[in-house]
Amino acid sequence: MFQYFKKISVICSCCLFFVPIVGGYCQVNNDNTITIAEYLIQKVNKGTDNNFTTSLLLLSHLSLADTDIMKLDSIYKKEKDPIKKLFIVFTLYQRTQEKNYENDFVELYPVGKQQRHIWKISRYETEYINVSSPLQQRLADFAITNKIALEKLLSGYEFADGADGDSLSDQIIHIYKENPDYVLKELQKKNIDLSELGIK
After folding, report:
1. Listed residue (79, 74, 17, 13) closest to 47, CA to CA
2. How far is CA 9 from CA 5, 44, 55, 85, in A?
3. Highest mean pLDDT (candidates 19-28, 40-49, 107-116, 182-191)
4. Sign of torsion, CA 166 170 171 176?
5. b (16+ CB within 10 A) / e for 125-140
6. Same structural domain, 116 and 152
């Protein structure tokens, strides 16, 4: 019963793409149906407009079959645009937790002012509703133990404002509480004062 309601919530999201839904599947025509995941992966493969980002963010919450992961991985390896690659590898990591995808995600994540592009895409170039970038949150999770991820996370601080600035401050505070000495060194390198974050 719970799985049924979970499926319905995803189906409603898929309706953004105006595709008939029958029994948990997207109906392509009268004779052929594909799974919701397969349909979203097709949208990713086309790589156009906000359907690309929306599809990936939805896929990051779905249970994917091995064949789905293989298809996404193939798209990822062929993709040349670093920002698109970042969004694809984010979804691949979310669904597999594999270390190689973690490493690629951290490596691809932009530095400093370039992070504004990620925030903008996450909020305005998708039908997926979120307060702050789920990619930034994932980087913050990695930053607890990954120094490169922490350096990249902090590099965006001076360029973040509004909801992005608030969420980034909260994420830094959380990491600081986990390991104060570790974070303090990096904050000093970036000339970020603890008082700015509300830490005394």
Report:
1. 79
2. 6, 20, 14, 27
3. 107-116
4. positive
5. ebebeeebbbbbbbbb
6. yes
Rounded to the nearest 5 degrees, what angle is found at the Cα of 99, between the Cα atoms of 143 and 137? 35
- Same domain as 160, residue 129: yes
Q: Is residue 7 located within the same domain as residue 78?
A: yes
Neighbours of 105 (CB within 10 A): 23
Mean pLDDT score across all residues of the chain: 84
Give 181's Cβ-side CA count (13 Å radius). 0
* 43-52, 77-86, 95-104: segment of lowest average pLDDT: 43-52
d(CA 194, CA 200): 7
The reported pTM is 0.83
Question: Residues 6 or more apart from 38 whose CB is under 8 A from it?
Answer: 26, 68
Question: Among 57, 92, 108, where does a domain finish?
Answer: 108
> Highest mean pLDDT range out of 27-36, 42-51, 114-123?
114-123
Tokens, residue 53: 């980002």
Instruction: Name beta bridge partners: 33.
Output: 27
Q: What pLDDT score does 26 carry?
A: 54
Are residues 58 and 145 both part of a single domain? no
Q: What's the domain count of the chain?
A: 2
Q: Which domain holds residue 33?
A: 1-108
* Alpha-carbon distance values, 96 to 85, 129, 142, 184, 198 (Å): 16, 23, 15, 32, 36
